[in-house]
Amino acid sequence: MSFGLFIVDAKRRRVGDEDIEGASIAQAVYKQARHKFGGALEGFGLCVLVDAVGAIFNGAAQTGDQKPFEARLLQVEVRAAFGARGRDCWVIFRVVIARHIKHRHIQHRNQVFKIGVGQVAAAENEFRVAKMSLTGKGVNAFHNLVADGEEFHALELCRRKSFPAREAFIYERPVVVNPVIAHYNSGTRGNLDTQSISHPLEDEPAPRGQLQSGTTLVKRYHIQEVIGVGGMGSVYRARDLHFPNVTKLVAVKEMINMAPDPLVRQTIVQNFEREANLLATLNHPAIPRIYDYFSEEDRSYLVLEFVHGKDLEAIINDTNGFLPEEQVLSWAIQLCDVVSFLHGHKPDPIIFRDLKPSNIMINSNGDVVLVDFGIAKTFQSGQKGTMIGTEGYSPPEQYRGEATPLADIYSLGATLHHALTRRDPRLEPPFSFAERPLRKINSRVSPELEAVITTALQYNPSERFAGATEMKEALMNVARKTGALSKIATTSIAPAGGIKPIWSFKCEDEVRGTPLLHQGILYIGCYDNNLYALDAADGKFQWKYVADGGIVSRPAAYEGNVYFGSEDQRLHAVSARTGKVVWTYFAEGRIHSSPRIADGHIFIGSDDQTLHAVNLNTGRSIWKFDAADEVRSTPFIANELIYFGSENGDFFALDFRGTMKWRFQAKRAITSSPIAAGQSIFFASVDSTLYCLDARNGWAIWRYRLGKGSVSSPALSDDYVFVGAADGFIYCVEARTGKEVWRFRTEHQVTSSPVIYKDSVYCGSVDGNLYCLEYRTGRQRWKFETKAAITGSPIVFDDIVYIGSTDHQVYALLA
Amino acid sequence: MLDFFRNLFGGGDKTPKESATTAPLSDQQIQSIVNNQNIQYETQQLIAAIGQSVGKQREHNEDSLVAITATLAGKASNIPFGLYIVADGMGGHQFGEVASNAAIRVISGHVMRKFHSYLFTVPTQQPEESLQEIMESAIKESHRIIQKDAPGSGTTVTAALIVGQQVTIGHVGDSRAYAIHPIGRLEQLTRDHSLVKRLEELGHLNKEEAANFPHRNVLIRALGQGEALEVDVFTIPFPQNSTLMLCSDGLWGVVAEQDILRSASEAPNLQRACQNMVAAANLAGGPDNISVILIQMAG
Known about the structure:
The complex is a heterodimer.
Chain A: E1 7-9, H1 22-37, H2 45-63, E2 74-83, E3 88-108, E4 111-123, E5 128-133, E6 142-144, E7 151-152, H3 154-160, H4 165-168, E8 175-176, E9 216-217, E10 221-229, E11 234-240, E12 249-256, H5 262-280, E13 290-296, E14 299-305, E15 309-311, H6 312-318, H7 325-343, E16 350-351, E17 360-363, E18 368-370, E19 377-378, H8 396-399, H9 405-421, H10 438-441, H11 447-456, H12 468-482, H13 484-490, E20 503-506, E21 516-518, E22 521-525, E23 530-535, E24 541-546, E25 556-558, E26 561-565, E27 570-575, E28 581-586, E29 596-598, E30 601-606, E31 610-615, E32 621-626, E33 636-638, E34 641-645, E35 650-654, E36 660-665, E37 675-677, E38 680-685, E39 689-694, E40 700-705, E41 715-717, E42 720-724, E43 729-734, E44 740-745, E45 755-757, E46 760-764, E47 769-774, E48 780-785, E49 795-797, E50 800-804, E51 809-814
Antiparallel strand pairs in A: 1-4, 2-3, 3-4, 3-5, 5-6, 7-8, 9-10, 10-11, 11-12, 12-14, 13-14, 15-17, 16-19, 17-18, 20-51, 21-22, 22-23, 23-24, 25-26, 26-27, 27-28, 29-30, 30-31, 31-32, 33-34, 34-35, 35-36, 37-38, 38-39, 39-40, 41-42, 42-43, 43-44, 45-46, 46-47, 47-48, 49-50, 50-51
Chain B: H1 2-9, H2 27-36, E1 45-53, E2 63-70, E3 81-88, H3 96-119, H4 131-149, E4 157-163, E5 166-172, E6 176-181, E7 185-188, H5 195-201, H6 207-211, E8 232-237, E9 243-247, H7 249-252, H8 257-266, H9 270-283, E10 290-298
Antiparallel strand pairs in B: 1-10, 2-3, 3-4, 4-5, 5-8, 6-7, 6-9, 9-10
Helix pairs in contact in B: 3-4, 8-9
């Protein structure tokens, strides 16, 4: 265990030295420190800190031992200190036994002081708070300021003592004061009874109740074990009992509010709710989802997505030698993504403010998840905040109370530096990365990556990357240059023991269609002529509806009805609840296309060479459009136009009256269903091309050559287009340029259409597997083998993937 | 007559008294109202203007530019079409102007040939290739021709092909395409292929060092240079309500962003905006040839 220390060692200080007054020492130290750290420690903060710690030692000397004490082993770790010059000062500290301390000597008058940074060998569990009067000569008294077990925020204390917070503060962190008297009997020199440091305090009361395993909260969350301990309470792993048939794990973060002061209590609750509200608005794969929050008596709880994995700090510590560059690089790219997501938050950017290895989880897929949004905050520019964060990882300006998006860039750089060098920045002087060049410590790091990290760690915010997107771009360049991307893409992490379905359901014939999930029910068509309705949670059969032909069409739902086409040449509308028929519409050919609902109409293609517009309520034809060949593509509606392809290679854009606005011709059939984003529309064709057309007039913007023809429908995410092809590849192509990003080989044709969920691509293959790939790199996360070809497409909802296979089964898998 | 209005609007008591007058607007106010009026055209059209100057310190103009705006409006659908290119021949190489001239002619010739059957024949026919393929092949063809006809020379090229709402940009070197947004923001659309930019991307230089870097004009990619040419090609929707700007480094390297923005916003029309920008560059010493094209989508 190691901690950053900020230590002033008043080694030669004598009792009752009249020369010394807290503030003057502080100034000397401050000057030195500023010289050393290049002006970083601006403001009054450092003075107070140094004052305070000096005072503690002085106090110790006064009350106890008259000898100048050996401070090599016993040190004080200061967590926070605040106060105003010449007035009272508070310091939050604990006594630790330290080792490997690096000192800098600072001379003031005849005194030599040290500032040190070291590693903690042993420490008191809890911090304590002492109040010192700095008026007059030295320290007059220590008072235990905060009641036993009281939780507080330094800011609140400050306010209570009517200090102007801005001036008086350096460093705030929620701290639980739980006075413990520790007697370090190390048996070596420098043994100091800590009772002489502060007033004797009562023995610690029984440890504040952590929830026992087996406790159930609000009749829903069954506590399994403690997975973390924070300043305000614990974090538990719990099982959500609302899902009796599957083990759904959640993380329950507890906050115990024991502050007697109503204002403080209120602040704590507000902060907690703020975190909850903030999280609730964020939807990103690298941010845990929030499911619930509630309070019980003095405790409030957040229920969050449980992240299977390990935090980066643990990974660094548990790795022998250095982590491979490509590994760190791929995490770095993901971190840039999530940070840029936070910074792009509307209306105000969110600054995470405490990016560091212990707040970064690496989940079982090897992907990053940011945890602990306790101090993330929205940022209004020009706003000054308080210093919050972690020394070592926080940039200089954060010590001045500024928090801008560039602060997170610095912390990200510090985190990467730590991960690549194994040198914990908390054990080093702040802002001293320049003295520890990456490649001097770990020569296997590429100069390109070193350059990126150096830029992120620039002292001056304006010299860092302008934003996380720019930093990501730079990292991507490194990845391309060093070939790390391809290495990442080829190392797949398959979970041990394979994937077990949550449930499966057996039909009487091949399932070639794509399911629909609507209000907890999964609807899927089958070649046994049935449309099945299954409970999405457990796969329980609800009802089936018998058509007179196979069903490949993906159902659509609208206001209590489910609509789908069948090879019996009909479009069926049935009640979603009972499966009773509402109406049927007769086409003149088989229906392989899927219905699209818009503006009270259903649009669907048929092998009768027609696109049908049907009234949603009555099932009557509104108009028909003659496409001159079979229409198997599912129409897409955007920009008030209806887009679809036909089997002779025509691609049409119709308005809602059924009038053609434009037409584009591919060389062979367009079975693939189009998808539009902005002004572009994407689809594949059997002519082995993925097309991007101008959605308004049908001009080809780019064409991407596939290895073979494709009937797969493209999916879009961010700036990428994903599609499968008969050559067995799943492709990822940049939407703006039509350039390939990656391709992934399956063992047979890919007729299934990819689906994007969070940061994974899910796609089936005729080789019988459902693949889950990392969407940025195409790296395989897992595959699930069915007993026959998969031709339909998966859907993903609430972390569960549903897929039908020609082995007659429908499967539900954990995403 | 007055009675008629009274009846029409119900209630004569609301008629303004004749003595009530409003203060006359100043010319400036009128002008600003006129400028800010968003005139809606029935038919969409591209409007473009150019500015070019040899600068104050060079004897030759090694910049070339092309601006083609085709408006074909009629009963058949009207699709705005435009092709705009800025090429900055490389000084220090022989025949910089030969290279830049060849670039604009070969590229526009190639593109126009591809669009000929769409624009100038009946029945109209869309080109087979995609917009990006046309752009890339045009630039690669000019690359070959420059290598053949003027070996050793080089040029930048930044070309914008506008078809309908889509702007397809082809780019090599350090001329730039920008979107000038009406709120007063300049968005750079292209990425320089210059040594200084590369060093900056790699983190070897910070912004300040980059600004003072002695070899700012060293390119790492140029038309006519090297065997395999990599061209940046991408397509974006025409920036809404904004002005597209192509320019050589004689403008962007000399005139500060806010001055470019001011030149654009204070001018009554595009042509004047171009003149203002060229004047600003010359006022700042005019160390290099200056080329600028401004394009707007009206309607």
